[in-house]
Every structure is written in structure tokens, then in C-alpha cells.
Design goal:
587 residues; six-stranded mixed beta sheet; four-stranded antiparallel beta sheet; 19 helices; 10 strands; binds adenosine-5'-diphosphate
């Protein structure tokens, strides 16, 4: 990643123009207008004070004009700040549709393996906070504009005061610069610390979510580890908060010194102006203008300092937002996917999870022919799930190849490939939608295809359940007042969802883990009938299903230990026979 300062600045301005033109141009116009009009205030005051003692009929109309202009200069900023507030609200309302969608659009292309990487998750969380809490570039832009306005006012006031006497300038400059440098230093430290804490903060959020999530609250109550979790949360919280508190305390001490120096400089400046007036080097009107200008400068320099720091702070969030877009995306292939006709083959495939020390798959070779029903078995952690992810192109191999009819998945356009794959994964989602939607999300175009829905729900034995809940359009999940299902019933819904998509390849990862043996038997025979012409890959701990398989792949320590039919492997007396015997004892 490039570490050029402000490398995302123009990108964020371009995005603002794309997403929120009103915010960009409205704020720019209002801020510049406000700045220019305020610049005139001390000039007009000096002129009005100069004219007031010597008013004649000839100069009365000039006096009037200048007074009206002064009123406009004082009143217009109020209008501008209303425009700015409206622009702020507009930005707040559109942030999800613009920055949010931009981010989630990009996240669709991220390599799925990357989502197992803690650093990527940190990056994701920071980018999410950057747009949702800090409104990405727009907040930075607001602070920039506020700075522009303050800079304009400060420069012009400097020029006006300097034209009265150059002796009036050093005090203001020194005080301001001293304060500013201290604040910039504190802001840098703050950002460094905040970034260093990202993993700790994510952990803190994780603990907090455990207190608010239905499943964990229930488990916590039953197993009684509420206090233990609370202590963990408190410890994590103390760790994060203490570090920030110490930092803020140091920053406050330094900042107080800065303010003191700045105020001393202000007092010194007033004294110098008074001295100059006594020595007749400054007219009374100029002295009055100086007092207004010093007040304005004191205000504006303080604002400039505050806004500059806020600008730097918001820019750090901009960096976090745009850094996310540098996450590695899927190596997208160029070839259009053609449904495979012969086989899926793996040749010496190795795969390691991000940050892991050992290979999850270590030199896997195998072939699955079109239309075969394959069951992958093996003990926990032997690599079954990982293998299924590589077989379906969801994860890409670190070395070796996964080919569909001889074409490497890395060369195939992923979208086309995924259209031909359906899956029931272990941690499937319980969507708080209607039952119909829960089934049809895998192929929404067929949402009203009642016959297809009935075939699928019959195959997984759901008819009784559908009747008992009052039909397919019943909302599921108690969170929003819908019907809650049992674990086994949710599992049937997930299987129906996987079957509903009419894909060439069907992957089922532990599809019957939550089902009772009778339901398991019914479902397995039902869906094997339904998927007769499709290629299925079933991952299971339970070897009972293997009798129906065309091929059994036995995984052990990331390698294929055995491959064959039930009879062949049972007679071979190897790993499969051992698992079979161990499970047979239970029945
Ligand atoms: P199985 O499905 O046979 O239980 P997996 O394929 O899930 O096994 O896991 C194979 C190996 O990869 C295990 O050693 C496991 O610890 C490791 N593993 C699985 N998922 C991850 C992950 N997200 N990050 C790091 N290692 C993982």
C-alpha cells in the first residue's frame, strides 16, 4: 500500500461529486460566500468609525451604504450556515445509498478466503465505521471548507492589521502556531493508538453482541456464565479505554500550555495596539478595528485549529474507508462458464487459511464425474469442508489445480460458475423472512413456481410443518413476531433452499446434523430421488448415507486417505472401515 500523505484526497472529492453533488457544491458556495463577506467586516467597521465623526450631506449616503453592507456581512453567514446544515442532513440521509453501497458492492468481489483473515475483518470494520459514523469524505470536506473560510478570514484580517502596523502581527502568529503544532502532534498519536486498537475494539463489540443476541443470552442464562463474560468485557473495555484516557490526559496538558501561550500573545497584542495609539501611530478608528480584528482572529484561529484537527481526524477515516478498497479481490477468470459434461478434477491441490501454520489440504488428487453422488467422510478437522469449498471454486487453491472438464476454475468467470452450484452450508442463515422466501432466495425468479416448491418441500418432508404454520407465506423467526422453528425444522428449510436452485452441482455440508434418524432417512432418500441427474457432494460425519453413494472420499489430515464404494472401502479394512465399525456400534 502506498503511504503517500493525502493519497485518497482527490478520490474522496470525486466520489462526493458522484454521490452527493448538492453537498459538495452547496457547501463550497456557502462557505466561500460566508468567508468573503466576513472578511469585509473589520474593513467596513474602520471606514464607518472614520466617517461617523465627520458626517456631511455629501458623505451621508456612503455612510448609509457601508452600514447596510455591514449588516449584510453580519446577517448572510446565518443563511449560509442554514445551507450548510441542510447539506449535512442531505449527506447523512444518502450515506448508505452512496458510500455504503459502494463498499458492499466492492465486498462482493473480495476473495472469500480473505474473510477468514483478522486483518481484513479489521479493515472491513474500520471502513464501515468510517462511512456510517464519519460519513467518509463528506465530513472531511466540511472541515476543509470550514478551514478555507477561516483561512480567508485570517489572511485578510492579518493583511488589514498588518497594514495598520507590522508590530501587531508576530504575537498572533506565534501563539497560534504553537497551539496548532501541539494539537497536530496529539491528533497523530490519537490516530496511531486508535488504529492499533482495532482488533481489541472488534473483540469488545463481539463481547457486547453476546449480551444482545438471542442465542448467546439463552446459553449464558442456562449455563450461568454471565458474570464471567461480564468480567471479560470489563477487562477488554478497561484495556481500550485506559489507553485512550492516558493519551487524552497528556494531550490536554499540552493543549492547556498552548492555550496559555496563545492568550498571553493576545493580551500582548492589545497592549502593543494601545501603545501605538498613544504614540499616534494608530488612529482611534484603526484601534477600534484592531480590537475587532484581534477578537475575530482569536476566534477564527481557534476555529482554524479545531477544524484543522477535525479535518485530519476525518481524513484518517477517509483513509480507512478507501484502504478497504485495496483488499484483495477474487482472481476473476475471463472464460464464460459452460456447464461441465464430464468431470471435476483436483490435481495436487494445497490450501492454507490466511494466517494458519499448516495446510488444510495437502496434496489432494481426485475426480468426480458428472451425475455422481459423492460422500466425503472423515474425522473433525480432516479437511472435508475446505475440500468442498475448493471443489466449488469458492476458495482457490494455493497450488495445484481444480478443473471443470479440464478448465481451471481460476480461468472461469466466477459468476457463471456459481450459477451452476447450489449449497447447504453448515452455518446456514435463518432468514427472518417468510417460509417461501427462505426457500426461494436461492432462485428468486421461481418464487411463484408452486409445483417446484412442492416437489422440493415434499422431498425434505416439510408438508406437515407447512400445514401447521399456516402455509408458505408465514413469517419465520420470533424477533419480528413470526413463527419460530425448531433446529431440525430450520435445517429442512435450508436443505429445501439448496435443492430449490436447479443447479448442476449440489453441495451439502452436514445436511442432516440436526435431524432425528427417521427424518434423516426420509430426507436422504427423498432428495437422492430428486437430484438423480445432478452431481451431489455430501459431507457427513454419519457414514449411514454412504451406502447410497457412488463414491466415498475419506479425508484424513488434509489428504485423501481412501476413495471407493461402500463395499470396497468396508472390505479394505482401512480408515473408512474403522469409522464404519465405530458408528455401527451405536445402532
Ligand atoms: P472438517 O470439515 O473436516 O471438520 P475443515 O475443512 O473445516 O475440517 O478444516 C480443516 C483444517 O483447517 C482444520 O485443521 C481447521 O482447524 C482449519 N481451518 C478451518 N477453517 C479455518 C479458518 N477459517 N481459518 C484457519 N484455519 C481453519
Amino acid at each position: 500500500m502506498k503511504s503517500k500523505p493525502f493519497r485518497y484526497f482527490w478520490q474522496s472529492i470525486r466520489d462526493m461529486h458522484r454521490f452527493m453533488p448538492f453537498l459538495l457544491w452547496g457547501k463550497l458556495t456557502a462557505s466561500i460566500g460566508e468567508g468573503i463577506l466576513q472578511v469585509w467586516q473589520p474593513v467596513l467597521i474602520a471606514e464607518i468609525f472614520g466617517l461617523a465623526p465627520c458626517l456631511t450631506d455629501a458623505n451621508r449616503h456612503i455612510f448609509r451604504q457601508k452600514t447596510i453592507f455591514l449588516c449584510i456581512c453580519v446577517g448572510f453567514p446565518a443563511v449560509c450556515s442554514m445551507i450548510l446544515r441542510a447539506a449535512g442532513l442531505y449527506g447523512e440521509g444518502r450515506k448508505d445509498k452512496s458510500y455504503g453501497w459502494n463498499m458492499f458492492g466492492f465486498s462482493r468481489g473480495i476473495r472469500l478466503e480473505a474473510l477468514d483473515d483478522a486483518k481484513v475483518l479489521d479493515c472491513f470494520q474500520k471502513a464501515d465505521a468510517a462511512y456510517s459514523r464519519h460519513l467518509a469524505g463528506s465530513r472531511m470536506f466540511s472541515y476543509l471548507l470550514m478551514n478555507v473560510e477561516s483561512v480567508l478570514v485570517c489572511i485578510s484580517t492579518f493583511l488589514v492589521v498588518g497594514s495598520f502596523s507590522p508590530w501587531l502581527l508576530p504575537g498572533v502568529t506565534v501563539g497560534f502556531l504553537f497551539h496548532l503544532l501541539i494539537d497536530i502532534h496529539a491528533e497523530r498519536k490519537r490516530t496511531e493508538t486508535y488504529r492499533g486498537q482495532s482488533m481489541k475494539r472488534r473483540r469488545l463489540q463481539y463481547f457486547w453482541r453476546l449480551f444482545c443476541t438471542k442465542e448467546s443470552v439463552k446459553e449464558m442464562r442456562i449455563l450461568g456464565f454471565h458474570n464471567y463474560l461480564k468480567e471479560k468485557w470489563v477487562a477488554a473495555n478497561v484495556d481500550v479505554v485506559q489507553e485512550m484516557e492516558e493519551l487524552e490526559l497528556k494531550a490536554m496538558k499540552l493543549s492547556a500550555a498552548g492555550v496559555l501561550v496563545k492568550n498571553l500573545c493576545y493580551v500582548a497584542n492589545v497592549a502593543i495596539a494601545l501603545l501605538l495609539m498613544v504614540k499616534n501611530e494608530l488612529a482611534a478608528g484603526q484601534f477600534a478595528a484592531c480590537l475587532t480584528a484581534f477578537g475575530l482572529l482569536q476566534d477564527k484561529l481557534f476555529m482554524l485549529d479545531t477544524f484543522l484537527i477535525s479535518f485530519l481526524n476525518s481524513y484518517h477515516h477517509v483513509e480507512e474507508y478507501y484502504d478497504f478498497f485495496e483488499t484483495e479481490t477474487d482472481r476473476e477468470g475471463t472464460e464464460t462458464y459452460q456447464p461441465f459434461q464430464r468431470e471435476i478434477s483436483l490435481c495436487d491441490v494445497r490450501f492454507r487459511y490466511p494466517g494458519a501454520q499448516s495446510w488444510a489440504l495437502d496434496g489432494v488428487n481426485l475426480t468426480i464425474r458428472k451425475g455422481e453422488h459423492v460422500v466425503i467422510v472423515g474425522v473433525n478437522g480432516s479437511g472435508k469442508t475446505t475440500l468442498s469449498r475448493l471443489l466449488t471454486g469458492v476458495y482457490l487453491a494455493d497450488s495445484g489445480s481444480v478443473c471443470y472438464d479440464g478448465r481451471n476454475v481460476t480461468e472461469i468467470r466466477r459468476k457463471g460458475l456459481y450459477q451452476d452450484i447450489s449449497a447447504v452450508i453448515q452455518d446456514f442463515v435463518h432468514y427472518r423472512f417468510s417460509l417461501r422466501e427462505n426457500i426461494c432466495v436461492s432462485d428468486f425468479r421461481r418464487k411463484e413456481d408452486e409445483e417446484h416448491i412442492r416437489n422440493v418441500t415434499d422431498a425434505v418432508g416439510m408438508q406437515e410443518m407447512i400445514q401447521s404454520i399456516g402455509g408458505l407465506d408465514c413469517e419465520l423467526g420470533s424477533e419480528f413476531g413470526g413463527r419460530e422453528l425448531s433446529g431440525g425444522e430450520w435445517q429442512k428449510v435450508a436443505i429445501a433452499r439448496g435443492l430449490f436452485k436447479d443447479s448442476g452441482v449440489l453441495l451439502l455440508d452436514e445436511p442432516t446434523a440436526a435431524l432425528d434418524p427417521i427424518a434423516e432417512y426420509e430426507i436422504l432418500t427423498g432428495f437422492l430421488k430428486l437430484i438423480q441427474r445432478r452431481t451431489s457432494i455430501i459431507i457427513s460425519h454419519r457414514v449411514g448415507i454412504c451406502r447410497h453413494a457412488d463414491k466415498i472420499i475419506v479425508m484424513k489430515a488434509g489428504k485423501v486417505a481412501e476413495c471407493g464404494t461402500h463395499e470396497e472401502l468396508k472390505n479394505a479394512g482401512g480408515e473408512y472401515a474403522r469409522i464404519w465399525k465405530a458408528q455401527a456400534k451405536w445402532y
